[in-house]
Amino acid sequence: MRLPTDAQLLRIFIGQDDKFQGKPLYEAIVLKAREEGLAGATVYRGMLGFGANSMVHTSKILRLSQSMPVVVEIVDTPENIEDFLPILDEMITEGLVTLEKAHVIAYRHA
């Protein structure tokens, strides 16, 4: 069964070594999103990137000690995403968050 709906994509750009209460920040965000009942979340590790300080982060062998860029994506209704933003305010000390409209097509068993 195909279920189309309008939604919102929350994209969070942080560093792999960022922490929240002693655990990786990306993990804490995903677990909190699950706890809050959001529809789904995925974490991607970047191979190359730079942020506000213009420092290049790369996965090249000589720089493996650098904190790699990480992107957490969460898709849900605009209302649920809006409710989740204050939680992120408490968790993120350095990073970037973007919001986009998304048209979701979910496939489910009949």
UniProtKB/TrEMBL annotation:
InterPro entries according to UniProt: N-reg_PII-like_a/b, N-reg_PII/ATP_PRibTrfase_C, UPF0166
Official protein name in the record: Uncharacterized protein
Highest taxon of source: Bacteria
Family stated for the protein in its record: Belongs to the UPF0166 family.
Organism phylogeny: Bacteria, Pseudomonadati, Thermodesulfobacteriota, Desulfarculia, Desulfarculales
One Pfam family hit: DUF190
Organism: Dethiosulfatarculus sandiegensis
